[in-house]
What does this fold into?
Amino acid sequence: MKKSRNIGWLLLAFLVYSFSVDANAQRLKCKEKKSVKRLNSHISYLASDRLEGRSTGSEGEMLSAKYLAAEFQKIGLEPKGENGTYLQEFTIVTLRISDPSSHLKIGEKDFKLNRDFYPLSYSSNSASVKADVVDCSFGIKSKDRNDFENLDLQGKIALINASSPDGIHPHSKWTAYHGIQVRVDQAVKLGATGVLFYTNDQNMEEPSGELAVRMNPSNVPVVYLKRSVGEKPSGLVDIEVSILTDSDEGHNVLAFIDNGAENTVIIGAHHDHLGRGEHGGSLSTEGSEIHNGADDNASGTAGLLELAKRLVKQKKGTQSNNYLFAAFSGEEMGLLGSKYMVEHMPIPLDKINYMLNMDMVGMLDSSSKTLVINGVGSSPSWLETIGLLDKTITGIEKVKTTGSGIGASDHTSFYLKGIPSVHFFTGQHPHYHKPTDDIENLNIGGEVRVLNYMYAMIETLDSKPKLSYQKTKNDDANKRRSFTVTLGIIPDYIYDGEGLRVDGVRDGKPGQRAGMKDGDIIVSLGGKSIKGIKDYMSMLSELKKGDLKKMQVRRNGEIIDLEVQF
Ligand SMILES: [Zn+2]
It folds into this structure.
């Protein structure tokens, strides 16, 4: 009897258990449906033609900012921008061109702008300096070479040969020092008030005279004397640089959940996109269509509103931190909004616990359900937490991680300020930075899973002390790697098999001209086998323009031989 009664109880317990699990699942499903509905409505608006692709400084970007502010207010978040509003405004430079008043005089000789010399991108916008030049050879300071040794640069103009001891090509021993910026920075560190580049190397390509707008310029004038002048400057030099700039205003949107906690978590996503490609960045080969940026990054922006709603409603289990929601602008122009924010924080940086960034979270692969989390090296807690999260709760089957805190999105700005920061990403795709990045391609149900995952992470970290920060390993490797050639493909970062799977092939680039197709898997290049993205990158960094290389791809299980002209 005892036994049977026990079985009876067990049976009853089981029935109650399965009923409540079922009810839970039902409730979740219903909740998720509502979530999908809201995300869909946010993304429909943000990625509509009306917002013209949300280019920083445009009317469409302002509409997007206003929409977000109104939504944050509806949900019940406090404004945390300027003057009691949700907005944080910053200036972006949209054009830089040399003013004709710029001049260069060496001794008594006047040189003509553009014909003889031009300012380089890294030059300050306006400056004039008159001083003797000091010959700094190639301007290299490395472990086994110091061109600045015993030189007094204080108040002087550094004269630097734009080439290197073994020329400018990918096999040079000095590739890490080819950049204008590293050499200028070194000279300025030693007191130089201006830098004059020249070269007598007939084989190198002269530095570009186009003044990039996506650049944090130096604070000294930097000019290049063209090779055609055929002179190595000496003596007294007079440089005046004046660069005309045009600017616009970008708008971050900042909203706050105050739980009265000591520390604050930042949840961010950029809300700007490429507009019609007016500031560059488009991968489209046709005219100036609207780039709606549904995945990039209306998906992440809508995710902010959804997570904010959840964190306001369900305070229990998330109250050990405050939450600062940040929709950045200027991301597509070089992380400008987040860079501005970290310099103008509404909450001191040392009170920030960690940062979660969403950039492109709308295209979770429906079969592999793989989520990418970048930057997990920025704190020892990330991998530990990821290990704790149960995939069955969140509906994410697999998590792929990368370590470096430096990446191509806004978490980088926070990482560089010493904040543990990660980036959630559902992977590359052929619509990336093209006018076809529309809502029809999105897996919004998949985005709900990503948000569930993030929410579970927030809950898990709620009971933990403030995360400790650590510098990530590959910082230098990321900065130094430079390529002079491109294949023009979009790698599939999610692909797990051997080789490098290609998500998309760009029109008119070497890969397409060689006959590559979307979905090809590169298995060898230049006689070396390609096991994954690392092999591919290291092979690419050895190639130079004009190289003709054999390549093998696997297409529908068959090996196909191609020849690529770089
Ligand atoms: Zn993006």
